[in-house]
Structure formats: C-alpha cells, structure tokens
Amino acid sequence: MKRVVVTGLGIVSPIGNGVEQSWANAIRGKSGIGHVTQVDLTSEPVRIAGEVKDFNPAEWMNEKEAKRTQRFVQFAIAASKMALQQANLTITDEMAPDVGVAMGVGVGGMSLIEENIATMNNKGSKWVSPFTIPGFIANMAAGGVSIETHAKGPNICPTTACASGTHALGEALMLIQTGRAKAMIAGGAESTICGIPFAGFGKMGALCKTFNDEPTKASRPFDKERCGFVMGEGAGVLVLEEYEFAKARGANIICEFVGYGLTGDAYHITLPPPGGEGAVRAMKQALDTGHIRPEEVDYINAHGTSTEANDQLETAAIKAVFGEHARKLNISSTKSMTGHLLGAAGGVEAVFTVMALKTGIIPPTINQEHPDPACDLNYTPNVAVERNVNVAISNSFGFGGTNACIAFRKI
Known about the structure:
The chain is an alpha/beta fold.
C-alpha cells in the first residue's frame, strides 16, 4: 500500500475564511455562532447558527458562475483552491487524470429545493429554474471543484449524513493507497441555513433552543447543561498526495495520513447503540490500519455534538478503545465554536486535527462550565493547551448509524 501525505489545507468556517484566521480563532476559543441572517426565523423556536461571514465567492470563481452556483459548492471550491495554493500544486494537463476529488456533502442545496417548490406551488412548473436539479444535488460540490481545478481523476461524493466529510477523506486515502490516484482534493462542504432543516431538526428535539439570547454559549459539548446541537455551514479540504509523488515535486509535507475506520451500528436511525460500539470499532479500525498503538495517540478531535446521547456514548467509546490511556488524552470538540457543519464537519475538523498535530496546540472545547459525571475525560476545557502531538484522530458519526474515524501521524 502506498503512503499518503497531507500537503495543503483549506477552510471556510463560521470562525474564519482561510486556515490562518480559522485556526487563530479556534485556539482563542472564539465562537462563530450568532443569530441567523440568511433566513427569517423570528417566529421559530431556534434562531441561531454558525454562519460563514464575509465570504465573497467571486474571489474564488467567475462572478457569473458564482451567481448560479449554490453556497455549499462555492464553499467547496474556495476551500479546495486554498488547499491547492498551500500545497503549491498546479494541476497540469499531463497530471490531471491522476488528481481526483472526494467531497462529502450531507444534504446539498436544500434552500434551492425550498425556493423552487414554493415557485411551482405559487406560479406553476414553468417558472421552476432549469438550474434546480444541477443546483441542489450533493455531488455538485465534487463536480464544481473538478471543473474549477481541472482535476480529472476519481470524482466521488459520499453522502453519509454527518460522517460525509470524514468518509470522503477516508475514501480518498484508499484511492491513493491502491494507486487509483496520485493526489486527491478531499473534504466536506455544507450550507443548509434555511427553513426545512431548522423545522425538521427542531421537531426532532435535536437543536439547542435554550440559548437563543446567548448564542455563543449554545454549543456546549460534554457539558451537563448541553441542550442539543447548533447548525453550522462551511467547508474543510485537504490536499492528499502519494508520498513519492509529493517528495518528487518538492512539496512541503505537513503530516502523514495513515488510518481510516468505517462501521455501521445496525441499531437506530438517529441514536447510537449502548456503549457506542460502532464508534469503538471505527476507532479501532483507524488505529489498526494506521499501525498505531492506542497509547501513541495524543489528541482526539471528537464528534462532540453537544447532544445528550452522543457525548456520553462517545466518551464511553473512547474509554473502551483506549483504556487507562483515555485519561492521558487531550480531547476537544471544535463544534463548540463552529456549530455542527453536518456533511462538512469531518472536513473542517480534519483541518483542525492536522493543525493541532502541526502546531502542538490543542484547541479547546468552550462552554465547559458544568462537568457531566458521565463525561469525565479531558476535553481541554475553555482554554487551548500546548502539547507535543505525534498522532491524532478525528471522529464523525451520522444518522443511520454510520461511523468514521481518520488518523494522522507526524512524518
């Protein structure tokens, strides 16, 4: 199996556009959650989200194309171009068939669906936009990135709910390991700040509605007063390369991507099983495929959604995998600052995981004010800490009982 390395990072997030700004805010513990501006939610029980701010798609693509491209695709293109710039990788005609795209998206262009259903109901089908179908389908993020960057290799879009971005990265890893590609642009993108997701998640009781007047305190993973997740939007992308290919072109190698685990719970459409056994197997797979001993792991970027079930069962799963070493780990949920980016979560959190490994700084879990006795590990509460990180993993779990874990190691 070929070795795979990370050479570039790109991110569009509620706490910044670009790696430098997002990482600086992450280690400061700055929340990106506020009152929603994209849609009128004044009469709704939940009115807060982690929105991307000051984003101009015309900086990353043709202005005419940007106007007819959905926001989640714009984010994917921007983050991908950022990552390629950092990797100093220009995709030439000769190289193009060997460079692919794997972009996880959980939902796609939900706001466009809403708009065109309303148009059809109010005005008739002849007024439905011809861009409706290519606008909302999830794989347009991967397609858009391919078109914009001229990457002609494997082009895939895992849609596995909140594990989409992590699955995209894992599948990209395997494509390079098995020789199907020499480089992959991989991660996740999402933007669902519109009516139906708020109504749907709200009816499930999944969203936090206690902190509408204090939005920066609403996402509080592992805290006893957590009350549900907060939606976010954005994209996180890594440029992955086969080690010899990267070395031959003189690339600046950030770290090695070594492990990937993926499992199914076969239990419930939304709830994890007792003990988080599917998460246990996903983490063990990531360690096994990465030839990592549990005691080598220094940091876990947790799924950490700020929901009752996830946070307790993820804690139990970490204990099951790491035993006594679990109490020596630094763990954090960056969702405490960004909110839950759904299909983009794994991509954004992979960027933060790699940055923790690169810089030796563990981002905090903010709003850790009231310890939950069932969540009793070191979640790096409220303040970033310095620690030498040699191995780090990132967890993502999704509705339908789908689990993913990826592992990175210093080269």
